[in-house]
Amino acid sequence: MSKKVYITPQGASNLRAELQYLWRDKRPKITQQVAAAAALGDRSENADYIYGKRLLREIDRRVRFLEKRLDVLAVVDRTPKDTHKIFFGAWVRLQPDNDALLTLRIVGEDEFDLGQGWISLNSPVARALLGKSVGDEVVIDRPAGKMVAEVLEVSYEGFSDEA
Q1: Domain residue extents for the chain
Q2: Cβ(8)–Cβ(75) below 8 Å
Q3: Opening angle at CA 94, ends 91 and 98, nearest 5
Q4: Bridge-partner residues for 147, per DSSP?
Q5: CATH 3.30.70.120 fits 5-75, yes or no
Q6: What residues pair up with 150 in beta bridges, in sequence order?
Q7: What distance in Å separates the CA atoms of residue 92 and residue 56, rounded to the nearest whole number?
Q8: What is the pTM of this model?
Q9: Over 70: is that where the pLDDT of 162 sits?
């Protein structure tokens, strides 16, 4: 019924840590604040009480999401047999036409971070890169138009000299 969602070991660990923090640290603190605000009397105009209850609902919603999500995650902790090709978890260096060097990592949809150059496995860029090797030319459909890039390097342990 539910399909597996791929994630790196680091990403799965981050989600577990977030769940633990919300459940063991943040939620009990907010619960105490709400109880203290409720003890003050009239709850209808008590901003601390109203805000605290709203925050508890948001925390509970995120906890439910994380618990369900962790059940369907498939942690990919092995490198593929052919490390010259681009698969999940790969670090990739690209040389787009008329653009600066681009370093990307293909990760799960729960851990993408454009600031770090981590792109989702389901993104158009990642789908265009999957299965390619060093020296291959890739055509990537983007909202801004097509981009042609050459794959310069593929690694499954990161690059030692970040560009």
Answers
A1: 5-75, 91-155
A2: yes
A3: 160
A4: 140
A5: no
A6: 95, 137
A7: 41
A8: 0.81
A9: no
Instruction: Write the CB contacts of 70 (distance below 8 Å, at least 6 apart in sequence).
Output: 12, 15, 16, 19
CATH 3.30.70.1130 fits 91-155, yes or no: no
User: What tokens appear for 60 in the block?
Assistant: 């509970």
Q: Burial code of 108-137, b = ≥16 C-beta within 10 A, e = fewer? A: bebbbeeeebbbbbebebbebbeebeeeee
84-141 residue pLDDT tens: 999 999 999 999 887 789 899 999 999 999 999 999 999 989 999 999 999 999 998 8
Helix (H) or strand (E) holding 153: strand 145-155
In the structure encoding, which two tokens stand for residue 110, read together? 């729960």
Q: How far apart are the C-alpha atoms of 56 and 34, rounded to whole Å?
A: 9
Residue whose tokens read 């109203």: 50
**How does the average pLDDT of the chain come out, rounded?**
90
Q: Residue 141, Cα to own-chain centre: how many angstroms?
A: 22
Mention every residue, 6+ apart, whose C-beta is less than 8 A from residue 6. 73, 74, 76, 88, 108, 121
Helix (H), strand (E) at residue 105: strand 102-107
Amino acid code (one letter) for 79: T
